[in-house]
Amino acid sequence: MSMWLYELIEELEEFDIIGDLKQKILGISYDSRKVRPKDLFVAIKGTYLDGHDYIADAIQRGAVAILTERYMENLKKDICQIVVRDSRDALGKVSSCFYGMPQKDMTFIGITGTNGKTTTAYLIESILKRAGKRVGVVGTIEYRYGNRHLKAPVTTPESLDLIKMLSEMKRDGVTHIVMEVSSHALSQKRVDTIPFSVGIFTNLSHDHLDYHQSMERYFQAKRRLFDILLPKSGGVAIVNVDDPKGRRLSRSLYTKRLCYGINTKEDIWANDLISDIEGIRGKISYNGKDTTFRSPLLGRFNVYNILAAWAASLSLGIDQTEISGGIEALSEVPGRMQKIVAPDGTTVIIDYAHSPDALKNVILSIREFSKGRLITVFGCGGERDRKKRPEMGLIAASMSDILIITSDNPRSEDPLRIIEEIKVGVERSGMDKFEDDKSGGYLIIPERKYAIKRAIALSKSRDIILIAGKGHEEYQIIKGEKIPFSDIEEAKVALRERAIQDRTY
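^ thats the sequence. predicted structure below, dont judge the formating
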């Protein structure tokens, strides 16, 4: 694949040129380590690194042109410089040109919010497949289309990687893309070239403040999907108005919308709900008509995800019978209220909840159908928002019978320091330390593997063990190293070991 440089920049609006545009470009890169001969190197500013500092490296590796936000002196005369105001914005545009605008004639459903993005994406995928559509998914767990399943390093890829993947999806016959759109992606303009037909706002709660610095800036990042991107493409906004920020968003929208909720009668709402260990069932009301639904997914909070998927599907013209069937067909989402039941009846639930609101909703849902004690295992990630650590400790301690504080992904931080910050909230709850002669209390077991084992060893018939924070992840990040680790697999091993021990005695 190749393209003349002057063709590649046709979508750019304001730029200066130093050098010759009449040369063939064989590829585009924003990572100097991946530059190949005759590439265009786009210098973008990241959270920690600035691509402008790596221009010399890119040229040494063979870049013949650079796209930059400032004129670079002392470069070889045959290197063409294209100077723009915003290189992130430009990266999406030149990538689209290079890969032939694959996003044209495809239908995009974008989902943003703190919680529920992944489950909502799985639900919409299930509905679209039932309606006979060829679907691709871009999300937290993986990127998938056809028979391909690609591990997701980030929820929403950089614009170049996204456009390249969309071109591959299009060649595979994909017509509909369900995309989890992170606040990072929105603020960094990774999806600005995507013509969204539907945009979904699930909710907003405390998370990612290490990056956004304040809840208001976090909210404004999410709003870009609805204030800027959807109006450009004439898409429909699907908004949860039971959420305070969703209500605020819905009042200021200039695009078509469908509002949903449980607590108030909106455009679409749920009623007659029953939530138990077998799943959720109830009715969805729309246009004066009730449609019965059943879902194997656990937790009343998943009704919001079902409503979001239902409303999005309606806006795409899908029949409610197909919608109901697609929802019932989804049995589980990896690491999202994922249930493991041992032969002796012990129930373990694995969930990705890593924010205060998510943890609270998961525990509330389990409490609704649990018949014994709740044993919670959780920790907080390192190099992330520290303010939520005591808050999550308070929630977990106040709502659990036994709490085991452990490590999550400590990254470069000291795991014991993270645990101490969680412990501040636990002690505020009044929960005592666990002793063998007590039925409740908290323990500190820094190594996650042994925390899971201890939780299962402490459990009795009818108890539920919640392992929260990592969900689908298959690793732990400790001192910068990714170490293979799965909550799901560790729980299964611990259950098998306990079963063997019980038979022995």
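The chain has a mean pLDDT of 94.
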